[in-house]
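Hi Q.,

Before the meeting this afternoon, I wanted you to have the nicotinamide-adenine-dinucleotide prediction in hand. No need to reply - just skim if you have a minute. The sequence and ligand are here:
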Amino acid sequence: MNAQAQNLINGEWTGAGDVARENPARPGEIAVVSPRSDRATLNTAIEAAGAAQTGWAALPLPARGAILLRAGELLAQRREAVAEDLVREEGKLRGEALGEVTRASDVLRFFGGLGWAASGEVLPSGLPDTVITTRREPLGVFGLITPWNFPIAIPAWKSAPALLSGNSVVLKPAELTPMSVNHLARALQDAGLPAGVLNIVNGRGSEIGDGLARDERIAGLSFTGSTGVGLGLHQILSARRARVQLEMGGKNAVLVLDDADPAAAARVVAAGAFGLTGQACTATSRVYVTPGIRAAFLRELTALAEGYRPGDGLEEGVSMGVVVSEAQRDGDLAAIRGAVSRGATLAAGSTEARGQAVSATVLTDIAADDPAVTEEIFGPVVAVLPVGSYEEGLAAVNNSRYGLTAGICTDSLSLATHFTENVRAGVVKVNRPTAGLDLNVPFGGIRDSSTNTFREQGRGALEFYTWGKTVYTGR
Ligand code: NAD
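Predicted structure with the ligand bound:
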């Protein structure tokens, strides 16, 4: 039985199954059907969000937090079923999906708990008998646009701080993964979120996403997705001086130095490159290696890559999920074949796929300006390049239009410290995979990876969803 995703508008589940989404691991099996909404439906959702916002913001902060806490609890109770739907629509491993649903539930609980802790400042005044305080106020209605690769965690980490802060929300999920967001919204609704505070509108990016960005009633927009779409949205939002947060592409690099343990470095790179089928914005896709460790590191990495068994994430023994769509598979293969045709060596992997199962692929003997080294692929593909020294490696890591995450594998505290201070990336990992962050830390990049302003996740996420007010009180 396929799942039915719907719109949630003013507390009502509506919309037909206009669009059928096939399970990426089982061709012909419909995983979920969802509505393809029009602008009139979007308009109703924005109206509902606008009408509900003031009442929601009037609730005490701990009462708003309590709803998030309850929703987190409900999602945790439902995690097995939610994870199974997530695998069917997105294709990752069951274990990865369970981890993602748990993350979404923990994010709700983290922000729910802040209902008792979010606070302003008390500042001294130069005037007598005067107290200055700062407050954070909600902006109104937020638009959220989310991608398919973390179909429940990203909607959770955007909507939780938006809602806790007293905003209402209109969320547009990715077309490929509509069901996961339905589960998130149901948990919030069942936890007591008032009608209209969170609205879900399914549909095309160019229709519903674009409509959200252009609507004057949307006070701010948070987007995660590709750099091209994000930069277009930035122009629209900036033109009407609305708040905008973009999390976009990455081309994340790891520098492996001679003094690292080759096996440990290979495990760090493989986890970053092939975990989540490489479909993470923080995935490792470039590796620079100094001469003394190159042969041993490549041997270890190749062995690890060859050990992956890609396939249906719900099957026992499968160790890497399928890629999300035929288009994504074709893009991955085009990048691999293109590099090979220009002279790169396929140290591990294949130029062919089995259905949507793409092999864990390692490219060597590849030019530094090959598109497989410079452009985001968003699949289980990593390029390994030689560098002569630490300095050359640091320069190579920084030579990118992106700047999301970066890593170094070394035993040298001094070089690790120099790297963390000089690398141009929003998140730096020493001896840890570039992918994977805790829920309480700021997340975001620089250059073409992010808006370079507000960070997501952790306590700091509340700043994007609020504006600051300074209050003088005299007596
Ligand atoms: P995408 O840009 O195609 O789509 C993302 C969302 O934007 C979807 O909901 C889509 O419907 C919507 N959209 C598409 N066109 C639109 C338009 N013209 N106006 C408004 N909305 C529109 O990206 P995707 O393929 O879903 O996701 C993969 C991309 O997301 C990768 O580039 C990846 O790096 C990026 N990503 C970034 C992060 C991060 O935090 N930096 C996290 C996950 C994914």
